[in-house]
User: Fold these one by one.
Assistant:
Number 1:
Amino acid sequence: MDAQFSHSKDELYSKKSMKVAVTGATGFVGSRLVERLQQEGHQVLVFTRNLEKARRVFPSTAFPKVEIVSYTPLESGAWQNQISGCDGVVNLAGAPIAETRWTAERKQEILDSRKIGTQKIVEAIAQADSKPGVLVNSSAIGYYGTSETAAFNEDSPPGQDFLAQVCQAWEAEAEQVKQSGTRLVILRTGIVLGQGGAIAKMLLPFQLFAGGPLGTGQQWFSWIHIDDLVSLIIAALTHSEMAGVFNATAPQPVRMTELCRALGQTLHRPSWLPVPAFALEALLGDAAKVVLEGQQVLSERTQASGFTYQYVRVEQALQAVLSS
């Protein structure tokens, strides 16, 4: 089931064939997005730093509507000319957040990959003779900071920690695209559930009968199934009334203990053995905050827009992920 909107003119508009540029296309979310765009008859420009990887992920025989473009995300260049003539741009690029320790160098890489990378996309749109109608720019629920008690919606103020600062800088660069007359949709994305990503990292201890909550287990886990996220991105591309910030999270966030209980039940494994905070901190340093601290994020504007989720409950989402 895809996104559903009440206006028939929008349904007709969404069926028009588009030309869409995608950064971060070879990643977990990007590769699924490119696949769906092609299935729906759209032409896709994949912007990549690694041509060889992109050709492996999108072989021409299976992806005849995909064109691969080499680009330098932190530098201006001839690649920017390819943006002209596109109907929309989806900017998903950014260095992974939680895979290594946050050294000063790594923090700078996380910031630059988003801030400067977005700046160069906005620059390309400004220079384009035929400007894209919409930029769908990724952001993250890290924008709100962390809390075990507060609930955040799209109007909530930003937090003060490192990830909140990164998201603010990221979004500020994207906002500049409005000067080109291009519609902007910012998706503050939660933890994405799919074949890969966070769940892939959590599976091994459960499969070894050693699964359980991370840290206290009381931290909030605001999630979205990858198919719903891709549907939301396509809705943002094709529905002209969507503009501004939308939380890309499912309607029902859960506590970490609930997530692990659901994961254990789906795998028919116990979920009682907690992973102590100090173990994750020893492994990841400050980056452990991504999983040890969370936020309860409500997708109020997203639901009010008319978007219909396929996966509302985390049990349902996990069952779909682990059975596919």
Note: The chain has one domain: 8-323.
Number 2:
Amino acid sequence: MVRAVAWRNVRLRYKSSFLGFLWTLLNPLLFLLIFLLIFSEAFPQVENYPVFALSGLIFWSFFATTSAHVMGALVENAAVLRSLAVPPLVFPLAQLLAGLFNLLMSFIPFAVILHLFGRIPHSTDLLVLPIVLCFGTFILGVSLALSALNVYFRDIGLLWNALLPAFFYITPIAYPADLVPERMRWIAEVNPLYHYIAAFREVLYYGRVPSPDQWVVIAGLAVLASTIGWVLYRALRPGFIANY
């Protein structure tokens, strides 16, 4: 059921679209163009700035888009959930699966663009997959908690859309992390996205294996977020029908 709903979501998202899955990469590319025009000369210490920026942007776009879709999944399918005996968890899981599918499809043009900017493939590139698995689990946990709360308080969706730009700017995506002043470094480090983007960039930009500490942090964040999301979902599940 999850697979069928996810495929429906993918088809509906790109129905009558000429570019299809390429739209998954369009948003990061627009941001990259802005970064090249504004920031490329501001960070001369960053070698091959387009690869540096794009290796963060593609995964930020995955987080922002997928978390928004998963968060709204229960409310958007309220009519189905009222009339059919469908487990509500199907719809958040289907949105996550659709987001992962879009991300994997976008890796094809993403790899081509990185090659055009002079990036050489590394054997460590395959490590992106376990990092994506941890990142997807983290997104599901956070978004599942938000989707359950959104059933009761629709302000959650509006608040999340307002917070996403703030997360974007406090996460070192357009700028290197070492530019963050030492007294403010803790703000970046308590942001989970900081650790995931750093792990992706370690593999795709530096061509290195993330350190054991990085693996522990991103796996631990995934377990913590998914546990909190599941507990909150189970606690709020009995009141869904009355609040759809």
Note: Residues 2-243 form one domain.
Number 3:
Amino acid sequence: MLFDFFKKKETLPALDFSSLKTDMHSHFIPGIDDGAQTMEQSITLIKKLMELGYTKIITTPHIMADYYRNTPDIILSGLDNVRAELQAQSIAIEIEAAAEYYLDETFENKLNTGNILSFSDNYLLFELSFVNPPNNIENIIKKMNDKGYKPILAHPERYGYFKNGLDDYYRIKEYGCYFQLNTISLIGYYDKNSQRVAKELLNNNMIDFLGSDMHHTKHASALKEALTSKHVIEALKESYLLNDEL
């Protein structure tokens, strides 16, 4: 009918990250790495994730021998403080803590001693150097599996030295490793190459988890912007992502 054109269009619900439920990579323990530096910043970032639809957070401070010498005790003590502040402010969000382990000379010793913070079904988040390719990644992944952990490689799209296309990534996955993509890579937040690789990994169903890797409010703004990206929208529809099982 002629007047149909003037009828008010149905308002669709805004897209958010509620289908994922859980963000499993962030830096919200104040003052112990390059993420939130104060409790106020930590609470602000947590609220940002809640506004985007998340109902659970697994925050993962860095553990790096040369920069962030965190331990499970330091991280869990910080988690207690964050939980206490959330309760004091009547903010209802489930929050746990693990760590993002840097693959350095101390990591294997941590595996040997069992001084490791994993999460959920013994998932273990680790990262590589952004500059130098690892020499022993096959052995380390095997050792993590042998110890009963389920290794997750953080932001695989950001390691620019993998030059063999998907072959390098298939090889790592065949060792027994999960992949966690930084969602904002899909909108080119870091660089064009990371964006290209992120899309390629996603299009080939190689991503197991989406993570915010949120350190500050710029990341929060980028994550909100990402909800307008067709690649993020498509990713949120994929049933193979495992975030909601955590």
Note: Residues 1-13 have pLDDT under 50 and may be disordered.
